[in-house]
Amino acid sequence: MTDSILSKAATMEIPINSNGDSRTAEEDSLEQGAQIGGSLDEIVGTLPVAMDLQQVMVSGPNLNETSIVSGGYGGAAEGIIPTSSIKDIRSKSRGITPSHSAASRIANQPGHYPAPSMHHSNSNPSMMSEEATRGVAVEKFDSMKKWSINTYKCTKQMFSERFGRGTKTVDLELEAQIDVLRETKMKYERILRLARELTNHFYNMVQTQQALGDTFADLSQKSPELQDEFGYNAETQRLLCKNGETLLGAINFFVSSINTLVNKTMEDTLMTIKMYEIARLEFDAYRADLEELSVGPRDAAAMVRMEIAQQQYQIQKDKYERLHSDVSIKLKFLEENKVKVMHKQLLLFHNAVSAYFAGNQQQLEQTLRQFNVKLKPPGSDKPSWLEEQ
To answer: Which segments carry the region annotation Disordered (predicted)?
Structure first.
């Protein structure tokens, strides 16, 4: 009885694995892990080079979830060793991280080419658009910077001139001509305004004469005892209306010519004068800046600033001289054109008005032919029947 109990106890203390070996579970587990690791190397080495590692992991068993059970069917839980820990141990011994060990062996195979990356081709248009946008922004910033500096210098120069602390470049002869032109333009604008008022009043008078002549003609048909008297007055009003329309044509031609002279020719010259005055102010501003730098220190930085100021001063000087010449030429041609135009228009106005109030219809028509004034037929200002539809 005692011998049987001792033999059972000895049998229980010696674990027996499935192969009948008397080795411990830990030694058995380590050996099986080594065998599995070796088999993994053989499997990975025999895979085709072009096969992707992801396809192998999808098609094959999930090695991270498999485990090696040592001992018999009723063995203890301590004998379960995950294969992932075995691969981690082998990878660390080789200097490769566990997650990339198999992928690194495949990538190092001869003839293996990595997949082309599309990131560069996709980001290239966006990089170009960003560079273009950045270039436009830099250009706008530079233009704004130049405008701000120029405005500051011109404003400083303007206040210096106004308070008597700055010097101003003045051409007395040219300034006198500019003042005369501005005064002449104001007077010609008054002539133009009065001539337009005369045209409106005279047009109303002609319309009244026409209506009065129509009324006289109607009454001459309805009043037999006053037929002759109404008829004479109707003919007189119709003649005055016809001569009035001829005079209106002459006055309209006069107004159109004065309007062209004042609002186009003179205005164009005055626009050039405004550009000249702005150039003069900029020239004096950069000249004052250069003079201020010339009396300052002569270190390296100051010499660089002085050289830049000298270049800007020369640019403004060339611009000022060019506009000065343009203004002188335009003033000269404007004076000649004004004399020529006003001589013709004043003679036309005088002859037309004199012939109208003298009742000389032939002289009035001859005056218009002399100055090539073409009268519009009555009702030409009204739209045609087709245009009304």
So the answer is: 1-32, 91-132
pLDDT in tens, 108-122: 555 444 444 444 445
The residues pairing with 82 across neighbouring beta strands, listed in sequence order, are 67
User: Residues, the chain, total?
Assistant: 389
| Cα 194 to Cα 127, 186, 187, 254, 383, distances in angstroms | 66, 13, 11, 12, 29
**Amino acid at site 305:** R
pLDDT at 122: 52
Q: What is the pTM of this model?
A: 0.58
Mean pLDDT by 10 residues, the chain (389 residues): 45 45 46 45 43 46 43 42 46 45 48 48 69 81 81 82 82 93 95 95 93 91 87 90 91 94 94 94 88 81 86 91 94 94 93 90 87 66 48
CA distance 270 to 273: 5
Question: What does the pLDDT look like over 24-50, one tens digit per residue?
Answer: 444 444 444 444 444 444 444 444 443
- Written in H, E and C, the secondary structure of the chain is CHHHHHHHHHHHHCCCCCCCCCCCHHHHHHHHHHHHHHHHHHHHHHCCCCCCHHHHHHHCCCCCCCEEECCCCCCCHHHEEEHHHHHHHHHHHHCCCHHHHHHHHHHCCCCCCCCCCCHHHHHHHHHHHHHHHHHHHHHHHHHHHHHHHHHHHHHHHHHHHHCCCCCCCCCHHHHHHHHHHHHHHHHHHHHHHHHHHHHHHHHHHHHHHHHHHHHHHHHHHHCHHHHHHHHHHHHHHHHHHHHHHHHHHHHHHHHHHHHHHHHHHHHHHHHHHHHHHHHHHHHHHHHHHHHHHHCCCCCHHHHHHHHHHHHHHHHHHHHHHHHHHHHHHHHHHHHHHHHHHHHHHHHHHHHHHHHHHHCCHHHHHHHHHHCCCCCCCCCCCCCCHHHHC
- How far apart CA 45 and CA 105 sit, in angstroms, is 8
